[in-house]
Amino acid sequence: MSNVLHALKANHDECDRHCQDLEDEVQALKRERSRLRQQSSVQDLIRSIRQRQVTLQRDLMNSRQLEAENAMQRRLLSKLSSERDALVSVVRLKAEMHCFGWTKY
């Protein structure tokens, strides 16, 4: 009978070791899954950053183009303003000349 109990005890101990090995493997798999999730999250973050970088570069190019157009419009406006001022001066001069009777000019 003692041999039977000893065999049962050995089987029980072997079963406990096997269960512990399985629990250790489950924990290792959980850690690996967590690591893979973090890695996936990092890859998603990298992908998101790259997309944002592309968007920012496009926005920067658009901003520079608008800035160049704005500078050109300011130059044109300044030129038109100068021409307007010159025309106003001519009109005033002609009006003064007309007032003084210098109409042949």
Key features of this structure:
105 residues, mainly alpha, 93% helix, rod-shaped
Structure description:
- Residues 5-39 form a coiled coil.
- Keywords: Coiled coil.
- By secondary structure, the chain is mostly helical.
- It has one domain (1-75).
- Helix content is 93%, strand content 0%.
Quick structural gist:
The protein is mostly helical. It contains 1 helix and no strands.
What are the SSEs and their pairings?
Layout (H helix, E strand, L loop, with lengths): L1 H98 L6
Keywords: Coiled coil
Helix content estimate? over 70%
Beta content comes to under 5%
Structural class: mainly alpha
User: What is the H-and-E element order?
Assistant: H
**Number of DSSP helical runs:** 1
Low-confidence stretches: none
Tally of individual domains: 1
What would the principal axes of the Cα set say about the shape?
rod-shaped
Radius of gyration, in Å, reads 44 Å
Strand elements, count: 0
